Amino acid sequence: MQQLINRAIRRDIDWPGIEAVLSPFVIPMSRTEQAPIYHAEGDVWTHTKMVCETLITLDAFQNLLEKEQQAVFLGALLHDIGKVPTTRWEDGRWTSPNHTLAGAKMAREFLWQTLGLCGTPEKQQFRETVCNLIRYHSFPPHALDHPDGKRRLLSIAADGENCPLFTLKLLCVLCEADALGRIGVSRLQMAEQVQLCREFARENGCFEGPFPFPSRYTRYAYLSGREIPPEAELYDDSWGEIILLSGLPGTGKDTWIRENVPHLPVISLDEIRKEYGISPTEKQTQVVELARAKAKEFLRARQPFIWNATNLSPMVRSKQVNLFAQYGAATRIVYLETEWTEQLRRNAGRADAVPERAICRMLAELVPPEAKEAHEANWLCV
Prior knowledge:
Blueprint: H1 2-9, H2 15-21, H3 23-30, H4 44-55, H5 59-62, H6 66-78, H7 83-86, E1 88-90, E2 93-95, H8 99-113, H9 121-136, H10 149-158, H11 168-180, H12 187-203, H13 216-223, E3 241-246, H14 253-260, E4 266-268, H15 269-276, H16 285-300, E5 306-308, H17 314-326, E6 330-337, H18 340-348, H19 356-365, E7 376-381
Parallel strand pairs: 3-5, 3-6, 4-5, 6-7
Antiparallel strand pairs: 1-2
Helix pairs in contact: 1-6, 4-6, 4-11, 6-9, 6-11, 8-9, 11-12, 15-16
């Protein structure tokens, strides 16, 4: 795939070759309709090809570094795959609600399993740059109309802390191509709105990287919605730090604990399941309730500890982070990943191995922690 992308950024797109690699998506995309007022060109795959052909002609694209070009071009190829499962006919028109989030998850699964982009910092960063481009590509044209556009912009840019290749600069390049690579009444207006987003990001110091918050405490407070200036130097009144682990089964969370923080007590959902004889395939309500009861004991005693579970989605992680915050504790999320075949090998060697099909389902829902989710979020390859 890399050779195909390198040819494309030299303005020589090999569509038959690309379609062969993207065969799981091409036919479904070519059968997915779009609202004619915005996409008179027709189906999603036709639009995708127009976006890619437009992209490579843009000066903003040609001025990027090669690795940036590769990520943006791959993002353009996959930017609308989420329309396949989300498109429906509603109120007399085609609509695709939440297609950007669905597309980012689909892309992550494809890049991880099919293209092997996992298990090293370089592969991880490239993959998540592509996924972020897909996840946020609908925002720049509406940035100035958003009720809290500045905070949203700084939140998106903050993802560059763990993924430095990703910037709003790259996002705006993709969005400009997305706006122009179509037949529709609003294409030029959308392109102008993307340019306004560029200027908005520059004015707020987050166009080519994350905003330089004065501390992690300020960043978390601001991105959590507190009405404070992002440059405010806030007093950190948290009494300690809770470590929340995140990662698929077989990524070595127990090993990481032994090698890095063996002195801290651990709340392990796996151990609770074993103690009470609860299968991972059963409802986990009791397991979580028992874990949270133990966590509250530690929190009341102001005892730092580790919450050891897969914690694969922002929604699941937020429940624990919010609990810790209620007791005045800060949270550090430590996300672990490894190479796919190695991960399956490690999992198969465990006494309580998780079925491979279950791990694949988990991967389809995985979203690595974003900077806004906690006081600190570390991504590690092990």
